Amino acid sequence: MKKYLVLDVGGSAIKYAVMDAEKNIYERGKVPTPLDCLDSFVNSVQSLYNTYSDVSGIAMSMPGRIDPNKGYCYTGGALTYIHDINMAELLSEHCGVRVTIGNDAKCAANAELGFGSLRDIQDGAVVILGTAIGGALIKDHKVLSGCRFGAGEFSNIITDYHKPFNGDTSWYASNGINGLLLHIQEALETEENYTGEEIFEMANNGNEAVLKGLNQFCLETAVQIYNINQIFDCEKVAIGGGISAQPLLLELIKKNFDEIYNSCYASTLPPEIVVCEYRNDANLIGALYQHLN
């Protein structure tokens, strides 16, 4: 069976795996992401390929605005030295195999579409609750890129029309990881820093103040899922990110969504709200799915 070198490029590390078309992983590891220049980045990828030169191709997930059909990177997210370059072509020249590249959030959606919780739908959405809000829209069983490759970039949706010029009212500020902490700090009237694990431990143990703050976080998440559904008419919306592993999160999002939906004259049917099946390996699996398809 053919094997592929699959890379998940992050701001601090490049996670890599040798995988087959059934997403079996034969070897895996990570190396630091070069932050200095493009040449260092290319050298790092080539070094990994040289280690596994029997692979049939390279599939890559990375941040930025990317044309997945050409592997052209208009931006590179935190990798500021990546802009306006056909990265797939460049890497293919150095490694001698076919290279495909996709945006990281859209790769996470591809993992769900190809192998996970969205494999049975035509239209839907993925919402990743992380440092920011990762997102993707799915149309006709394909991840929708958009004509300028920015479809589904939910993070900067403005949530307060009274303050449209303030980045603090963007969706990521309320429902990113820092937003979760701020909701809990406000509820507890403290400036104490808590990890996500500590927050959910307190909530699961019945801390009323923490539950109140968490419910507000989930209410704001549910509002935006409602809005996305009004625009896109989703069969399913899959919630991802590390905190999606907490059953209480999905429970509270669903509760708040149902209350919103039942109070409004919604013009669309409600979507099924589910959790993503893939978390830490979602970008790897999605990059592989994109490469194969």
From TrEMBL:
Belongs to the ROK (NagC/XylR) family. This is ROK family protein. It holds the Pfam family ROK. It comes from the Bacteria. InterPro entries: ATPase_NBD (IPR043129), ROK (IPR000600). It comes from Catenibacterium faecis. The lineage of its organism: Bacteria, Bacillati, Bacillota, Erysipelotrichia, Erysipelotrichales.
